[in-house]
Write a structure and sequence with these properties.
A: about 120 residues, mainly beta, six-stranded mixed β-sheet, five-stranded antiparallel β-sheet, B: mainly beta
């Protein structure tokens, strides 16, 4: 069935360092890959997404890369700041057709940025 | 635009009872998806409603059901509650058009089953 594996489950970095979170998906029909950030007690917030016709997308300190052949996608955060501390979730979906509204989530990565 | 809203925010029920949760999507969004979030299982898809029709369903028992109204507001119902149903229930709305199908989450309803 559909599955998204996310690693690592926890990640601790020093402020200013980079953080990388990796995900692997199983459904080759997936073509939309959002990343959500969830702070403690808050709702998940979309921070960046990528579609399968693009290999990389960048937004300031955040970038996402996609390898369709290997079914891998990754989140890269550069120059980390304490406010980046949160749980990050990757997800996979099919952008068109009947399964559009169904996001399959990874298990989440707890990122701690130490000052 | 106002964001996705959910009511109630907190709910305490006992085993065997039933519960109804409500979700109001962003104005103009016609798709509402529901997710269950638990520490052990993470975020799991329950179902999606679009234009008052269930379009997708996750792997949850029939005790979990939902509906959507003509104004796109959606309700989720859980009957015969079990202890394991304790979770944060999140809904997300989407415009669900070709170029814009990002999902935006509500604050969630925290359900505790005693």
């Amino acid at each position: 069935g559909e599955n998204v594996e996310q690693h690592p489950s926890t990640l601790s970095v020093q402020e200013g360092d980079s953080a990388v979170i990796k995900c692997t998906y199983s459904d080759s029909a997936s073509n939309y890959f959002p990343w959500y950030k969830q702070e403690l007690g808050k709702r998940p917030q979309l921070i960046i997404d990528i579609r399968s016709n693009v290999g990389e997308k960048k937004d300031q300190r955040i970038a996402v890369t996609l390898n369709k052949t290997a079914k891998h996608f990754s989140l890269h955060i550069t120059e980390t700041q304490p406010e980046d501390s949160a749980v990050y979730f990757c997800a996979a979906s099919i952008r068109y057709g009947g399964n559009t509204g169904k996001l399959i989530f990874g298990q989440g990565t707890t990122l701690q940025v130490k000052p | 635009k106002a964001g996705v809203t959910q009511t109630p925010r907190y709910l305490i029920k006992t085993r065997g009872q039933q519960v109804t949760l409500s979700c109001s999507p962003i104005s103009g969004h016609r798709s509402v998806s529901w997710y269950q979030q638990t520490p052990g299982q993470g975020l799991q898809f329950l179902f999606e409603y679009f234009s008052e029709t269930q379009r997708n369903k996750g792997n949850f028992p029939g005790r979990f059901s939902g509906r959507q109204f003509s104004n796109s507001r959606s309700e989720m119902n859980v009957s015969t509650l079990e202890l394991g149903d304790s979770a944060l229930y999140l809904c997300a709305s989407s415009a669900r058009t070709g170029a814009r199908n990002e999902q935006f989450f509500g604050p969630g309803t925290r359900l505790t089953v005693l």
